[in-house]
Amino acid sequence: MVSLRFKKAFCVMYSGLLFVSGIVLIAVSSLLLYRVFHHFDYIPGSTVGPLILLIILGFGHIFLTWLGIKGPTLEYTFHIILFIVFTSILLVTEFIIGVWTMILRDGAPTHSVDLMTEAFNEMIKEQYYNKDFARMQAEIECCGLDGAANYANYFRTDDAIRLSYMSCKDNNVPNNNVDFEPYPDGCQDAFPDYLQLLLLETALMGFICTGLQAFGLYVICSFNRSLKEERSRRARQRAELQRQLSAQSQQSQTLLPQPEIGEVGMVPPPIGISHLASSPENEPMRPPRERPSAPDVPADPEKV
């Protein structure tokens, strides 16, 4: 059986891991949130919710670190119970975030394509340069909705459309024979894959944190159970020690000499110096008292 001291050290190690996971969770969630806002015109707003919750839960990890260290090291039951309660809440919340993100992952690409199609058609119709769409083409490495053919009828006559088309240039293709080679894939195929990967990373963070919380819950519950057993053992030891001390005290009292009871039921005083001083044998000799003589009575003259 694992000792209580080892489990206590394990709880402290887990608390340190929880602190690191909180910092990583805040950093990675913030990075993913930046990627969402970077192309927010073509990403559904519902994808922001899980990432904001993960950032908040990252601070929850850091707060749990304090409870995870103070509770086991000082054996405070109140802090241990709080740690178990908050860990259970985080476990359920992070699992829900993972499931929620996977549900969003199924419907988000369709919504993203609708937003992208609307933006591209508006750009072609109004004939203006859409810098957000151009940035998406350059970073995602795609061109138009279905490919470079979407620009075929416009980039030669309109400068703004030509500028958007120029962001489709594939820099990985050597320009020996051609002056311009666009990306072969359309954005309505490439960008949903990018969005699904982003949501998959968000869901994985939720599920990984769920596993971490489940492990921490097992560790702290195991420590709490061992602590209760240890406290029961200490209580039994104290009770046994008190019983032994009480038995020794009673035994020492029975070994002491008991005073005898006199005829009238009174206990004679102990023989000591004061008793010897007050005994008649030790009193000094006193002269006997003379009895007072009767007074002289004059004789009756008649009897004489």
TrEMBL record:
Q: Does the keyword Membrane apply?
A: yes
CC terms in the record's Gene Ontology section: membrane
> Which keywords does this chain's UniProt record carry?
Membrane, Transmembrane, Transmembrane helix
Question: Keyword Oxidoreductase: yes or no?
Answer: no
Which Pfam families does the UniProt entry name for this protein? Answer: Tetraspanin
Q: Point to the regions of Basic and acidic residues compositional bias.
A: 283-293
Q: Which residues cross the membrane?
A: 12-36, 48-69, 81-103, 203-224
List the residue ranges of the region (Disordered): 243-304
Membrane topology (UniProt): Multi-pass membrane protein
Report the subcellular localization: Membrane
Which residue stretches does the UniProt record annotate as biased composition, category Low complexity? 243-258
> What highest taxon heads this organism's lineage?
Eukaryota
Q: What is this protein called?
A: Tetraspanin
